[in-house]
Specification:
single chain; 527 residues; alpha+beta; Beta-Lactamase; Hypothetical protein af1432; 3 domains; 13% strand
């Protein structure tokens, strides 16, 4: 049996059908209802329709507008005439999809809530602001179609309004879908600016966020822009800061005169929309140099930028939550590895230093900041398998027997088994498992050689050995820095990837030395 319904229905007007088809393009569930409150058409997943139709029809009975029919679920009600009736569209959020209220609605309709939630997730991008914007655009579409059918407007005017409506819906839908790029916020901000710039008739458009602790670290001081900017980025950033201060006093969007440095294009207005974080202004979107038949800022411009700002505000909150989760995750990893390293005073802080050295080597190799960060995480957990090695072996002051060394050699595979079911660590597992392989194939656990050894493992092999030789051990004191560097270069091509081994001399080791000093002081104070 098909799980999707749609298509023409008996008694449904052309306006209702057009709006329903437009909703279908956006993966939204919608109903057409006549003046008697009877459903004349519907589109969407059958299970969702069965569960939500009663609530949608009740929302329609209260007339046009946007209503939250259950937590995180909005009904957008659009009326139309000739013949009279209405279109009702379901606008869900992720929170609404997972709500108990939705589960109760599914139970009343005798449908599987898991299937309904799965069907709703792809379109669950809405909040109160974007739900209002979508409803307003559908209302504009309905008005335009009705006017055309009655001969009350010209084809040119109708096409322009309908194009605006479609462009707005398309932009908001595109922005909503791109909100999943939480780990690359600058890409999201850039895409919002680019889409707004292409949709609106402005010569330039920019988004500026202040460098403030209330913002997530990844968003602080961000400046993205599109179009013909008549000033350098430093000046543009200063203008953004000044406009943000004005927005605080204005408490809402503003239409202002362009700054002196940006009046060369002849435009007389700049549209400024504040961006919010934790209840206060933290940045602005601003656009200037409008061109075309109407050189003044229009209500359409304001509505579109205001709706986009709502998405950015929600995105900022999501990034803040992700950053908080990331910090908690990293803190947990550091606590775990510190506990393992602390079993032996000679390895105190070892994993943290290997993580730092690995990150620096990755950047020196030309890897991205994100890849270097992942390598840092790999360094933190590379020795977690030592938790499965007897403590008396790990802390033995003298030379290990062959049997004891055999136990030590199991720690990469133990670490891999411990971490393999953690989704956030899948990409670092090869570094954990293979960081004791040798470039000449004489390492362990699988005797891989050359480029068959994963890159993360080849980098960590150098970082691990660098820290080991730089630290005191029960059987020898720390080696001088020159001796450490010479030894790593001597083993290039046998123990280490030669390209990585030769990079060590070109890495700024001051951060490593500072971390080593802190660890040494903590070790002394704990003694």
């Amino acid at each position: 049996m098909s799980t999707e319904t749609g298509g023409p229905s008996q008694g449904e007007s052309s306006i209702a059908r057009l709006l329903r088809e437009r909703c279908g393009q956006l993966q939204l569930v919608s109903l057409s209802v006549n003046r008697a409150g009877l459903i004349t058409g519907c589109s969407g997943h059958e299970g969702v329709l069965a569960a939500m139709s009663p609530d949608l029809v009740r929302a329609g009975a209260d007339g046009p507008g946007v209503r939250e029919i259950m937590p995180g679920m909005w009904a957008g009600v659009v009326s139309h005439e000739n013949p009279s009736g209405m279109t009702i569209v379901l606008l869900p959020s992720i929170a609404g999809v997972s709500s108990t209220a939705l589960g109760a609605a599914c139970s009343r309709a005798n449908v599987d809530p898991a299937i309904v939630r799965e069907a709703l997730v792809p379109g669950a991008h809405y909040d109160a602001v974007s739900a209002g914007a979508i409803t307003a655009m559908l209302r504009a579409s309905a008005t335009d179609v009705a006017a055309l059918s009655e001969g009350q407007t010209t084809l040119q005017g109708f096409t322009g309004e309908l194009t605006n409506a479609y462009d707005t819906i398309d932009l908001l839908y595109s922005v909503g879908r791109s909100m999943k790029q939480l780990s690359q916020p600058e890409i999201f901000l850039g895409s919002v600016c680019e889409r707004l710039f292409k949709t609106l008739s402005y010569r330039y458009l920019a988004a500026w966020l202040e460098d403030d602790a209330k913002l997530p670290k990844w968003l602080r001081g961000q400046l993205v822009h599109a179009g013909q900017i008549p000033v350098d980025t430093g000046t543009l950033s200063a203008i953004g800061g000044s406009l943000a201060q004005q927005a605080v006093r204005q408490n809402g969007f503003m239409i202002v005169e362009p700054p002196e440095s940006m009046r060369g294009d002849g435009s007389s207005q700049v549209l400024v929309q504040p961006l919010m974080c934790k209840g206060s202004v933290c940045g602005v979107i601003f656009a200037g140099g409008k061109y075309g038949d109407d050189p003044d800022v229009s209500s359409y411009d304001i509505q579109l930028i205001e709706a986009s700002a709502g998405y950015i505000d929600a995105f900022t909150e999501n990034v803040a939550l992700l950053e908080e989760q990331h910090l908690t995750f990293m803190g947990t990893l550091q606590a775990l590895t510190a506990a393992i390293d602390a079993k032996d005073r000679y390895t105190f802080g070892h994993s943290e230093r290997v993580a730092l050295m690995g990150e620096q080597l990755a950047l020196a190799l030309g890897m991205s900041a994100h890849e270097a960060e992942r390598l840092r995480i790999c360094g933190l957990v590379h020795d977690v398998g030592k938790i499965g090695v007897p403590e008396q072996v790990l802390t033995k002051p003298g030379k290990l027997t062959d049997e004891e060394f055999g136990l030590i050699k199991t720690h990469p595979e133990i670490g891999h088994r411990i971490l393999k079911d953690i989704p956030q660590l899948q990409d670092v597992l090869p570094g954990v498992l293979y960081h004791h392989e040798r470039y000449d194939g004489r390492g362990y656990p699988h005797r891989l050689a050359g480029d068959d050894i994963p890159l993360f493992a080849r980098i960590l092999s150098v970082a691990d050995t660098f820290d080991a030789m730089s630290s005191n051990r029960s059987y020898r004191p720390a080696l001088p820095r020159a001796k450490v560097l010479d030894e790593i270069e001597r083993c290039a091509g046998s123990q280490f990837d030669p390209q990585i081994a030769r990079l060590v001399r070109y890495v700024d080791l001051s951060l490593f030395d500072e971390m080593f000093r802190r660890h040494s002081e903590r070790l002394v104070s704990a003694a």
